[in-house]
Each structure stands twice: as C-alpha cells, then as structure tokens.
Amino acid sequence: MATKRAKRDPYFWEALISIIGLVLFISLAIVRYESDPHVPILIGVLIAAIIGLRAGFTWKEIETGMLNGITNSLQAIVILAIIGILIGVWILSGVVPTMLYYGLKILHPKIFLPATLIICSITSLATGSSWGTSGTIGIALIGIGAGLGFPLPVVAGAVLSGAYFGDKMSPLSDTTNMAPAMVGTDLYTHIKHMIYTTGVSYGLTLVIEFVLSFFYGGGQANLENVNQILTGIDAQFNVNPLMLIPPALVMLLAFRKIPAVPGIVVGIISAGILGALLQGNTFGKLLSAAYSGYVSNSGVEAVDNLLTKGGFESMMYTVSLVICAMMFGGIMEKTNQLRVVVRVILKKAQSTGSLITSTILTAIGANLILCDQYMAIVMTGKMYSQSYVDQGLHPKNLSRAIEDSATVTANLVPWNSGGAYQAATLGVPTIAYLPFNFFCWLTPIVSIIYGWFNITIDPLEEQAETPDLGAEQSAA
Length: 476
Prior knowledge:
Elements: H1 12-32, H2 38-54, H3 59-72, H4 74-93, H5 95-106, H6 112-127, H7 130-147, H8 152-169, H9 174-183, H10 187-216, H11 220-236, H12 245-255, H13 260-278, H14 283-292, H15 301-307, H16 316-334, H17 337-348, H18 352-369, H19 373-390, H20 395-409, H21 417-426, H22 430-433, H23 438-452, H24 469-475
Helix pairs in contact: 1-2, 1-17, 2-16, 3-16, 4-13, 4-14, 5-7, 5-11, 6-7, 6-8, 6-10, 7-8, 7-21, 8-10, 8-20, 9-19, 9-20, 10-20, 10-23, 12-13, 16-21, 17-18, 17-19, 18-19, 18-20, 18-23, 19-20, 20-23
C-alpha cells in the first residue's frame, strides 16, 4: 500500500519551474506562433499542479486552489459581461455616437492627448474606478482619437494613464483602501505619501502627452476624416445632448459609492429608454445589441470600424482568459509556490533600496503569476509587512510601494484580469498600448529610484512619542 507523501513547501527551484514554464509557453504562443494564450496558460496550470503534487499537496487541495482562484475572479467576470452589454446598448441608443460627435467638434488634435489624460484622471478620481472610466469615457475617447487620426495604442495609453492615476489616488478606490489596510496604516496618510512618487510620474506623463499630441495632431487628412465621421454619425443617429444622461448617471452613482454592477445597469437601462424615445429602437434591437453588439452599416468605413463592437458575446474571449489565468494563480497561492520565491528574495533585501525594489518586483511578479491585482496587493502586503518594521520603516512606505506597482501594472499583463479587461473594452491589444501607457510603467521606476536615494522614505515613529499612561500608572 502506497504511503501518503508528507506535505511541505515547494523548493525554490520547483516554484521557478512553474513560473518559467508559464512565461515560456505564453511567450512562445504570442511571439513565435501568434496564437492565443489560453492553452499555454492551461499548460502552466498543469505544471503548477504537478509541482504541488510533488510537494505533498493532494489533488483535492490543488483543485480547491483552482476553484478559489476562479471564485476570486467572478466579480471581474460579471463586470466584463455587463460592460459588453453596456457598449452594445450605448452604441445602438446613440450614447457613444453622441459623445464621439461632440468630442470631435470640441477637442483639437494639438491638445487631444493631454486632454484625454486629464479627463480620464478627473473621472477616475471622482469615481474611484479605472475600469468604469475606460468602459465609459475611455470608449468615446478612443473613437474621437481614431477620428482625429491618432494611432489607437497611443490613445489607449493616455486613457489608461489617466484612469489608473485616479484609481490609485482616489479615496473611493478599492485598491487605495486595500493597500493601507493590508500593512497597518490609514487611508489619508497613504494617499499623502503617494503624492511624492505619483506626482513625478504623472507630470512626466503629461509632458510626454503634449509632445505626442504635437507630433500626431493636425493635418488636412485628419480634418477630412473627422468630417466623414460626423456625416456618418448624423446619417445613422439622432445626436442629442440628452444622450449624455446615461454616462453622467453612471459617474454620479459611482461618486455616491454605489457598487459598480448596479451603477452600470442603471446606465444600460437609461440608455435603452432614451434610445427607444430618440432613436426609435425596438426591444428586439436592444436585445440583439446587448448580446451580439452593434453592427454599423453607414457606408463610411471609419464610422463602421468605430461603431461595430460591444455585446455580451464579445467578452467571452476575455472571460475565458481570466478563468484560465486565475486557475494558475489559485494553485500558486494554495501550494505556497510564490511565497517560497519571495522568502529567498527577502534574504537578500538588506538595504532600504533593495527592500523597496524587492517589494515592487514581487508585486509585479504577482500580477504576472497570480493574474489579479487584488491578490497581488494582499500577498505582497502580507509578505513584506514585518520586514519593513524590522528595518524601522513606516508602513506607509510599504503601502506606497504596493500601489506604485501592483495597482498600476495589472493592466500591462495580457493574461491578468486587468490587462484582459482593458484590451477587450478599448479594442486595443495589451502589448500594443503598453509602451504608451507611460504613467503605469513610469510609476514603479520612480518609486524604485526614491527607495535607493532615500527620498521621502519615512522611518517608523518612536513609540516614546506616545507614552503608555497605563504602564506609567502601574509603575507608580
């Protein structure tokens, strides 16, 4: 009779096999064969499961890890599905075409990219949601940018830079609340401390967007394209300021801290009602657009390319990608494989600069491996909290490092729930917009530099500053 293998933590080299296997097969699929990442991720799931079994975990425990990973992604999957419905309904009802129409008339090419950055920053600050910002205002700005002749990856980069700035700095954001809660500091101390690094990366991003706007903006061909799009929209839709009510409602509800799902549903219902009144849409057309998306037949190629999208069905590719990725992340979490790697890193992180660098690289690695920014925030916070105390550093340094990495880099990973969502919503592949999403890759670099040069790295307050009166009375 076979004896049961004793459970242990995986060895460092075993955990590396899982990580390298995932990255290798995904890279081969995307770069070498131009294939989809779903099956390569499932191969990574198989490798991680074999390592877990080798370490003494039962198949039941590994299966539980996979299911827990999928469970953690269910909220993202629900939002993905209803965002697909929202896009289809908003186009059919004239919401997106109206936003495109007015945007093309108002936004000048020379200031379009910095204006996009600022508009998305304000929206995300007010709502606390990068996903909500890109799924509403971002969609319209992508269309406006295309009409003005800007490459879509460049526009998507500006949209996401603004969206993640707001998500990172807004007191309404779940990630902004989660990071300090994980490490033992308060929300507003955390936000104030982030200003030092975030201000630099945002300022650099704004300057770059101005330069790119002057580089790409203007030109007679662009203006001709704009006029064609305006004519094509006019031919299909009744452009009316009332169609701006649904996005205004969604932002208002988000600002009032109404959860994302009911807020988006209100946006869908209000658009459906206005579309019936102002566009003459039937309930059958509404159902069709909600499921299959809207198909534009204006005869103007630019308009048809912009407005043929959306629907529940359009998000199924992304939903399946998120499920596969979270299966892998769930096994890595359950079998402690990533924790083993982090423990090795911590042994070498002796200085403040190396500790902050390790924190940031771990959070980015967690986004690559666990495939979800919330899991990356929680895991990194738990792993490093004691190390910061041991080195005499205030917890706000850790919470800032986590937000400077885990929050902003999730959308840079194609198989992460953040990257998959943004690519599906904006219609631009993650790899394509990554180089132009300046804020999200500049922020961790700035944070690492601050760590090595000890800039705004605050020590742990001396306990003597707040004497324990109870202890004094006992001594007396």
